Each structure stands twice: as structure tokens, then as C-alpha cells.
Amino acid sequence: MRKHLLALALLCLATWLAYRPALHGEFQFDDAMGIERGGWYLPKDPDKRLQAWLGTLSLWGENRGLVTASYQLNLWVAGGNDMKFLDLNRTTGPFHAFNLGLHLLGSAGLYALLAWMARRRGRPDWLAPFLGAALFALHPLATESVAYISARTGTMAACFGIWGILGLLAFAAPGPDGKSRHPLSRILGFFLLALGSFLAIGCKETGWMIPPMGLAALFWSYLGDSRAFWRDWWIGAAVGVPVFGVVILMWAERRTIFSDNFLWQYASAYGMRPSRALPCHVATQLNVWWTTHLPHALLPWGPWHPTVDPNPPMLRDLSGGVLGLISVEALGVLVLCLLAWRSWRKGGWGGLGLVWIFLGVIPVSFAALLDITAERHAYLPLLGAALAVAFPLAAAARRRRILVGAGLAMILTGLGVLTFQRSVQWDTEVALWRAAIRDAPQKPRPYYNMAKSLARVYRQIAPEDPVGAGRVALRADRLLRQALKASPSFHLAHGALARGLEFLGRGEEAVGEYRLAIRAHAAALRTGEAASLHASQILLHTESLARCLHALGRDGEAEQDFRWAISYHLDALRNGAPATLHATQAALTIRNLSRFLKGTGKHAAARQALRDGLRWLPDCRPLLDELNALQDP
Q: Backbone phi, then psi, for 485, in 5-degree steps?
């Protein structure tokens, strides 16, 4: 027992040192959205605070109410419940400490689970549990889940899940002597698994994978004796598997790409029919895991940081070389499945780790996600990876204690150093994207994302430090131009640069960038990829371009640009493009043109634009209402 306590103390100390730089990092990305929308605040009235907090908890599976309730408690403890957003960065300590505490608790749960597995094999040990838990706790792939406050969802779900699985094995699996448990003990074990799963599902959708992970662990606990497993559990399997299968199908129909809503989203994103978009999406996910997450897990010091570009190119054609690549990767999955089966037949635990990796990947592969390579999506599979290598590494260390022990110590130290460096990068968004630019200077997205982060900094410091804000604006301008140098057709950078130039009063340059952004989005829209996004950006940039031209006294050019956008959508309709998307965007553009003409005093031209629109789009109710509302001057 003393060895276990010392190992856990060393594990906690090493993990705290590795993540210490992240304990005072700023709110980033979705954190600001949660604060600005008020979801993290509690009422000022103490009598209503508890009621509001319990109301948040009631939003269990729909809006991750348990996680939001933890944010509310963190903010209240930090004393920031009455602060404005700009002052809240002084209160991030409790949030980061809570995230780190969850990671430590999950790592301790993995340690306890591995220790139980060692006892089940009749070889009580502290080395394998320590190695597995340390690899999980110190791996830099987990940094985003710990350092990024809004990634708490996955961390909390995994923490509840691992302790629920441990409860199942402790009370329902055979003991070290191989004897079956009492029925009441089995019921208690399944109750603990259900409780852990329920809490995990309240945090994130990946919690649905906790029950199958627990059942796989229970199956593995029989150490290859399938007859004993079915003798003990045939009634439970006959009843529980169909029930759980129905629940999973109900969830899949609502929350994954098998639902009508998400199938439509992916069909729009890929620019193809749902029947083709589904295999392309799964193939893209498979390719990402083999080319990004797996290399980063095995060689975390390599050049494949997932955060560099969270939206990799989608595989749109599964023929030729791409089909060959996917076939090789699918063959690799089959090989890993055979290794897992071989491990089970021999009574080893490494195969269970491989199964956990697959189960952890499933929610990411079939959920509605476009930023599929974000590091936080690898947190649950990382548990399986640590389990898969813990016992083989411990066995190797016993055979060659000095050589292998020194190598493992160097590996764990190296992982801790890499995690420390990654935690420093997560201190601010600017630092994070600066590191991404260093890792992949040829990609445009890191430059663009860093410019967006600097724009947020500009808005915060402009009222108090105009000179410093001006330097920040010039730096953002240079970054956007570097993004366009890396990819001249990068539409997001064109739009951001145009808005920045307009804000700085450089209207002539802004006009050119707006037009380039509109043409770039139109070219991307023709490919069909992310159609709704590009169509909405064309509408937005056309309206911004008109505003900019009006400020320059060039109303005629603004009218021409509006008409170009209208003709673009009408031509797309004539060529068989999705009618709903282009008809809606054409109607909105016609409406904006009419309002622009009305604002410049051309009431007759505004009415004529609406009549022309109704001729092109008969029975368009918004245009008809706009025409009826337009009165003579």
C-alpha cells in the first residue's frame, strides 16, 4: 500500500509541474462565448442562486448541464460573478485548477484500474499502474483537454467513466481467485457503471461509450475463459444488450451523422449526396487518426501538431490513390483487432486497451464535427493507449531493469517537458497560434487565427492604449498578408483583411479585398464544399462592400456588385445548384440591394429591384413583404 501511495504522490507532483504554466492562462475560444452569453453567471440574489444552479443541472444530456454548473461554481468561487468580461481574465485560476484536478482524478482512477488488473492476474504490482497512469497524465496530447477550460467536457466525462468502470470490475468481475461474485455484488457493480455513465453523458456525448468500454473490461476480466463469462452473464447479455442497442440507436438518430439534420449538414459540407458524404466523412476521419493523432501519440515531438490546422482537407473522391490509402489504413485496423483478440486469448490486458482506443474514436468519427483533429478529441482514446502499453512496458522493465528503466525514465521526463512547453503555449491564444506558425509556416490558417486573436486584443486595449492598439493592428495586417501569401485563394483571410482595412480607414484597399473575398467564396461555393458557409459569407461581404463604397461616394459600383451577386445565385439556380440555398441567398441579396437604393434616395430603383426579384423568384414572401412596406418618399 505504501508503494501505491508513493507512486500516486509522485504522479500527482509530476503532473502538477507539467501543467503549472497553464494554471493562470486566459479564457480562450469558446470560453468567451460561454461568459458573454451569460451561461456561466449565477444570479446576484443569494436566494435565487441555488435554484438557478439546480436548473442548470437539469439540462443534463442536452446542454451539458453538469459542466455548465461546474463553470458557474468556479466563477462564483473566484468572485467574478459580478465582473465584466474584460476583467474576468484575472479569475481563471479556479477554472484551470478544476480542470487539472479532474485530470489528476482520472489519472488516479486509471492507476487504480491498472492495479486491480494486476491483482486479477495474480501479480500485484505498482510499476505497470504507474507507467500507464504516467503516460496518460503526462502525454502532451492531453494538454488541450486540461489547459483549455471549455475542453472540460471530455475530461470530466472520462473521469466519471473510468471510476464507473472501476466500480463495475471491483464488484461484478471475478476476484483474484477466479470465483464469481454474489448476484447482489454484481448488481452493485452495474449500478456504479450506470452512475458513472450517467454522469459522463451529462458532460459530453462521448459518455455513451463508457458502458461498452465497461462491458469490454468485464469480458476481459475472465482472462480468456469465455465459457465462464457466458455462464455468469448470459441472462444479463440477453436483456441488457438489446436495451442498450436501442438507446444507442435513439442517440445516433438525434446526435450523429445518421440523423437527418447532420446528414444534410455533411452533404452540404462535402457538396454531394448524403449517401456519398457519409463514407467520405468516415474515410476522412480514418485518415486523420492514422496520419495525425496516432503519430502524435507515438512521437509527440514530431511535426504533426493537430492544432496547426483543425480542419484538414475532406476526402471527396474515394478512388485511385486515396482508395488505396484508405484500404491500407483499414487493413491496419483489422491487424489491431487481431492483436486484441490474440491478447484476450492469452489472458492479457493490452488487447482491452486497443478495444478502448476504437470505442473512443467512434464518437469522433460519427458525431457532427468538422474540427476533427482537435487534440481534445483524442483524450478518451488516450486512456486505451496507456492501458495497451502499461503491462508490456512493465514486463520489459523487469527483464532489463537498468537499461529499460533508464529509457522509461527518459521518456516520461521528455513527455513532461513537452507537456510543460505545450502548457506555456496555451497561456494565450496569441502564444498558441505563434507556436502553430512555427510548426507549420506553410499553412495559411495559423496566420489567420493569430490575426483574429490579435483583433480581440486590439478591442480590449484600444480604449486605454491607442498607440499599442495601433501596433497590434499593423501586426494583424501583416499576418493576414502572410496567410494570403501562403494561399492566395484563402477566402477567410481576404474577408478579415478587408474588415481590418475598412476599420483603419483604408477604404480603397478594403474594396479590393472585399471583392477578392467575394470571388474566393464564390469559387469555393462552386465546388459544393461547405456551401451554406460560403453563401452566407458572399452575402455578408457584398453588404460590407456596399457600405465601404458608399463611404467613398461610389454608389454606382456598389449597385453593380449587388447585381453581380444576384446574377451569380440566379445562374447557379439555372445550372441545377441546390434551390433552397441559392434562392434564399438571392432573395436576401435583392432585399439588401433594395434597402441600399432606398438609403441613397433611389426609391423607384429600389421598388424596381424588388419587382425584378419577384419576377425571378415568384411567390417569394420576404420580397413581397419588402415591396409592400416600401412607401413613396
A: -70, -40
How far apart are alpha carbons 165 and 109 in whole angstroms? Answer: 9
Q: What CA–CA distance (Å, rounded) separates 148 from 94?
A: 13
pLDDT score for 559: 84
Residue 162's pLDDT band (cuts 50, 70, 90): very high
Reduced 3-state DSSP string for 304-349: CCHHHCCCCCCCCCCCHHHHHHHHHHHHHHHHHHHHHHHHHHCCCC
Q: Is 577 helix (H, G, I), strand (E, B) or coil?
A: coil
Q: How far apart are CA 626 and CA 594, in angstroms?
A: 9
HSE value, Cβ hemisphere, 13 Å, CA-based, for 2: 0
Amino acid making up residue 38? G
**What is 17-84 written as a DSSP string?**
HHHGGGGGPPP-THHHHHHHTTTT---SSHHHHHHHHHHHHT-TTTTTHHHHHHHHHHHHHTT-TTS-
Q: How far apart are CA 514 and CA 501, in angstroms?
A: 10
- Region for residue 601 given its phi and psi (left: phi exceeds 0; alpha: psi -120 to 50; beta: otherwise): left
What mean pLDDT is predicted for residues 353-363? 81
Distance CA 156, CA 106 (A): 8
pLDDT exceeds cutoff 70 at 234: no
CB 592 within 8 A of CB 599: no
CA atoms within 13 A on the CB side of 431: 14
Over residues 594-624, the pLDDT tens digits come to: 888 888 888 888 888 888 888 887 777 778 8
Instruction: Assign 260 a pLDDT band (cuts: 50, 70, 90).
Output: very low
**Nearest Cα residue to 359 out of 342, 343, 337:** 337
Q: What is the pLDDT of residue 551?
A: 82
Mean pLDDT of the 380-405 span: 84
- Does residue 259 carry a pLDDT above 50? no
For residue 106, pLDDT over 90 is answered with yes
d(CA 443, CA 482): 10
- Percent of the chain residues topping a pLDDT of 90: 9
Closest CA to 144 of 364, 426, 357: 426
284 and 276 in contact (C-beta within 8 Å)? no
487's grid cell: 494561399
Q: What is the distance between the alpha carbons of residues 386 and 104, in angstroms, rounded to a whole number?
A: 15
Quote the DSSP letter at residue 87: G
Tens-place pLDDT, residues 47-81:
555 555 555 555 444 556 778 778 877 877 776 55
CA 97 from chain center: how many Å?
21
| Beta-carbon count within 10 A of 594 CB | 26
Listed residue (386, 395, 403) closest to 123, CA to CA: 395
The arithmetic mean of pLDDT across residues 526-537, rounded, is 69
Grouping H, G, I as helix, E, B as strand and the rest as coil, residue 196 is: helix
Please tell me the distance from the alpha carbon of residue 348 to that of residue 346, in angstroms, as a whole number.
6
Measure CA of the first residue to CA of the last residue in the chain; give whole Å: 88
The span from the CA of 505 to the CA of 469, in Å, is 15
